[in-house]
Every structure is written in structure tokens, then in C-alpha cells.
Amino acid sequence: MVLTTTEFDTIAAISTPPGEGGISIVRISGEEALDVAKNVYRGKNLDKVASNTINYGHIVDPSTNQEVDEVMLSIMRAPHTYTKEDIIEINCHGGIVATNRILQLVLSNGARMAEPGEFTKRAFLNGRIDLSQSEAVMDLIEAKTDRSMKAAISQLDGNLSHLIKHLRKDILDVLAQVEVNIDYPEYDDVETMTSKLLREKATDVHKRIVQLLQTAKQGKILRDGLATSIIGRPNVGKSSLLNHLLHEDKAIVTDVPGTTRDVLEEYANVSGVPLKLIDTAGIRDTNDKVEKIGVDRSRKAINSADLVLLVLNASEPLTEEDRQLIDATNKKKRIVVLNKTDLPIKLNLSEIKRLTKAQNIISTSAIKADGLKGLEELISTMFFNEGIASSQNDVVVTNARHIGLLNQAKSALEDVLKGLDEGMPVDLVQIDMTRCWDFLGEITGDSYQDELIDQLFSQFCLGK
Ligand SMILES: Nc1nc2c(c(=O)[nH]1)N(C=O)[C@@H](CNc1ccc(C(=O)N[C@@H](CCC(=O)O)C(=O)O)cc1)CN2
Ligand SMILES: Nc1nc2c(ncn2[C@@H]2O[C@H](COP(=O)(O)OP(=O)(O)OP(=O)(O)O)[C@@H](O)[C@H]2O)c(=O)[nH]1
Ligand SMILES: [Mg+2]
């Protein structure tokens, strides 16, 4: 890491969300945090107050001596702080103008504006947490359900880091042993011995990585949500279903076919599974220019979905359009929802069973709120059958970057095993083993490039 002059100067930002609220926090971190605070704070002598205390006082503009706000000021001295630097937090009255005024004062008295994620970046660069833990901070903020949050907390606690560090240590140990064997051969068959050692370790580490990767599918759903598209002809009750799953009237429902004109995306929590629900325009042939675009988008929503809820109207016979939709979704993970079962049933159930191979069919009445619990349970068991797949220590891999690196590490190990099978010289096999070690190191940030770090932290929110 190249230290630029701005790398560790004193930074400040508003760490609470913008808008009106009871209290807002302006956070300052760096060597001069206390000096900056002393310039704008009237109250106790900050040199004399103990660390980790909160202190009453006022923020004053030193250029005019004008009082700006009545505040509580927290002081946390390095190194036992979030960033491992001195931190001052000004707890001021909430509100956009007051909070920004204080931030501006702090900025004109020795601090510079923090970049997005810069506090957490410092926690990483100063060695309090590793890269995967920093990423967990972000996942925690964005968590959509309690289960997603649990996965993020576990990662923040360092459970994934722990597993990765173990794997890396085992690889390093074997690499060291191989070195010793080559440099100080005690036996004649040192080549055979060394190959055996490498093979055993590569096989073992490979198995542990595969186990971790098995949690990735669910992990990705926990982090990003399960893309669930509600598809069907106009007026079958798609938007009514969406509103029920959201427990909120988000989508407009009317008896006019073609009510939903565009796709609508909302997050729902279904038994802890975060669903990214997509309500679509009813699919039909239409000459209406606007509706046509909506219908095209609906068709695309089928392709991009992890799960399709195909809604049919049970009170009408199956139409040609229904059959086409069944056909178009046959290869997807799908639940067929027979809605409007409160009305006399006109749908031919045996035909539907034949067309869908009788898989995942459920009856509902959105208007009477019937069958919806069953639908939620079915979704949950389809994707989290035995609960969350737990690898070692309940670690779930949720992050696409981590998944990519684990796959690369896995394939490096496969190269090791292949090399050994083909009788490749041990020093060449070692290279692939070292590559595996490097890939794993990128997960925790033990080996990294500046661009990666900048890119990762820039996705954070301001003040974090
Ligand atoms: N006011 C406030 N609330 C907050 C934060 C904050 O920065 N400020 N946090 C920010 O995200 C979260 C708490 N996370 C934190 C994590 C570590 C440390 C910290 O000081 N760690 C030290 C010493 C801990 C101790 O006293 O034992 C360390 O690890 O050395 C502080 C906050 C959530 N709530
Ligand atoms: N009887 C009965 N009516 C329902 C049921 N579900 C929805 N409806 C009614 O059917 C009509 C259409 O419902 P929507 O939810 O707007 O249907 P949609 O599939 O979103 O329709 P488009 O957006 O036009 O494609 C409304 O009048 C709803 O009240 C049900 O289970 N039973
Ligand atoms: Mg609709």
C-alpha cells in the first residue's frame, strides 16, 4: 500500500441517515480529531475527560463566537476504537440544516470530508478487521431479513475469516514441509513422500472448500434476495398476491385487465427468506403501445427469475395464453398458483397436472386470504429445505467476490492433484498450491491490490 499524504488525515462525515430525526451524529476520526473538536466545542476540557465518555456542551462557530447547537460529545481515544484512531462523535439535534452546519464547521476547522466507507476502510487498513469482515459491515446495513442479518453478523464476528485462515495455515504448513523435504532429504524416496503429503493436503483442503461453496447458493439468496417473478394473464390476481406477500397495499388492484403496466419490484420477508418480488403486467397480445412494453418486460422477468409464481385464474377454463405461459416457465423453478378458488372452479385440474408434471401447485384466494400461508411455506421449503445449510461453524458464504475466489482456489487444487497424477515435478506442483493460498488470502484481504480496496469501499454509504 502506498501511503499518500491524504491517506490518514483527519476525516469527518455525518454517520446518521440524512433527513429529520431526533439526533444526528457527526463523526470525526484521525490524529487531529481532538484538536478539531476543541476548535468548535465549548464544554469540558477534552484533554481532561476520560476516554469512552459522553460530554455535554455546545458547538460554537469560532469565527463569530456564535452558538450553533447544544450537543453531547463522545470521545474515544486510540487505539481501542472503530478505526483504531482517535474518534469524536458529536451527537447533535437531528435535522438537515443543523447537522450540515456542524459538519461544515468541523471541515473548516481541520478535518476533511470522508469518502464513502472510509471509516471502515481505516478499521481494515489499521488491522482491526479484515476485508471479509469489512464487507460484512456493508451486508449488515443492507440485510433484508433476520436470517440475512445473522449471516452478516457471523461474518463480521470473523467466522468466515477464521475458516479461511485455517485453510491457509494448513497450506502453508505443507508448503514448508515440502521445502524441508526437498532441501534436507532424509530418505531416498523423498519425492514419493512429498507427493503423498501434497496429495493428502490438497484433497483435504479441496473437500473443505467444496463444503463452503455448498452454502453459496443459499448465501447469495440471503444477501441479494430471491428474484421472484409473479407472472400470469391480465386480471388473474398477481398484484393482489404481491400485496399479500408484502403485507402492504403496494400495487394497484382493479377489476380492469391490464391494470399493472410496468414491472414493480419490492422486498418481502417470507419466513426469513428475502424475496425480491417482481409484479408484472399481465401477459397478452395487445395493441396498446404502453401495455406492449410492459408485456415485453414481463417476458424478460421470466428469464431473470430464480423463482416464478405462475398465477392462473381457477374460475375460468385454461386459455391458450395460460398454456403458453406454462410452457415458457417449464424449465424454471416454479410454483403454479391457482387463484380465485373462492369462485366456482372452472379450471381442468388434471390438464394442469399433466402440463406441469403435477409439481408445486397451490390453491389460493387472494380476496379471502386463503392458502397464502401455504404458499409462503412452500417457498421457504423449496429454497431452505433443511434450514440454512451449515458448513463449519454455521458459516454461509454470501458474497459473489468470495464465491469467485473460492472457485479459483478450488480449481488451483484440482491442478495440484492433476499435476501429481501426471508425475509433474514437485516444485511445479507447489506453484499451484501457492496460487490456492493466494486466492484464499484475497478473501480476507491478506493479499490485495489498492484498486480492489478502493472499489470495494466506494460502494459503502457515506459516514460508515
Ligand atoms: N455511536 C456509535 N455507535 C455505533 C458505531 C459507532 O461507530 N458509533 N458502530 C460503528 O459501526 C457500531 C459499533 N461497532 C463498533 C465496533 C468496534 C468498536 C471499537 O471501539 N472497538 C475497539 C474496542 C472495543 C472495546 O472497548 O472493547 C477494538 O476493537 O479495539 C466500536 C464500535 C454500531 N454502533
Ligand atoms: N373472487 C376473487 N377475486 C380476486 C382474487 N384475487 C384477485 N381478485 C380480483 O381480481 C381483480 C384483478 O386483480 P389484480 O390483482 O389487479 O390482478 P392482476 O393479475 O394484477 O391484473 P393485471 O395487473 O391487470 O395483469 C381485482 O378485482 C381483484 O380484486 C380472488 O382470489 N378471488
Ligand atoms: Mg396487476
From TrEMBL:
Pfam families in the cross-refs: MMR_HSR1 (PF01926), MnmE_helical (PF12631), TrmE_N (PF10396)
Annotated binding of (6S)-5-formyl-5,6,7,8-tetrahydrofolate, by residue: R27, E89, R128, K464
Keyword Thylakoid carried by entry: no
Amino acids binding GTP: 235-240, 254-260, 279-282
Main location: cytoplasm
Annotated TM spans: none
Binding site for Mg(2+): S239, T260
MF term (GO), any: metal ion binding
Statement: the UniProt record of this protein carries the keyword Methyltransferase: no
Domain TrmE-type G: 225-384
Enzyme superclass (EC): hydrolase
Alphabetical UniProt keywords: Cytoplasm, GTP-binding, Hydrolase, Magnesium, Metal-binding, Nucleotide-binding, Potassium, tRNA processing
InterPro entries: G_TrmE (IPR031168), GTP-bd (IPR006073), GTP-bd_TrmE_N (IPR018948), GTPase_MnmE (IPR004520), MnmE_dom2 (IPR027368), MnmE_helical (IPR025867), P-loop_NTPase (IPR027417), Small_GTP-bd (IPR005225)
Residues involved in K(+) binding: N235, T254, V256, T259
Cofactor(s) of this protein: K(+)
Subcellular location(s) of the protein: Cytoplasm
GO biological process: tRNA methylation; tRNA wobble uridine modification
EC numbers: 3.6.-.-
GO CC annotations, alphabetized: cytosol
Cofactor binding note: Binds 1 potassium ion per subunit.
Family membership noted in the UniProt record: Belongs to the TRAFAC class TrmE-Era-EngA-EngB-Septin-like GTPase superfamily. TrmE GTPase family.
Functional summary from the UniProt entry: Exhibits a very high intrinsic GTPase hydrolysis rate. Involved in the addition of a carboxymethylaminomethyl (cmnm) group at the wobble position (U34) of certain tRNAs, forming tRNA-cmnm(5)s(2)U34.
Quaternary structure and interacting proteins, as annotated: Homodimer. Heterotetramer of two MnmE and two MnmG subunits.
Name of the featured protein: tRNA modification GTPase MnmE
Species the sequence originates in: Lentilactobacillus hilgardii (strain ATCC 8290 / DSM 20176 / CCUG 30140 / JCM 1155 / KCTC 3500 / NBRC 15886 / NCIMB 8040 / NRRL B-1843 / 9)
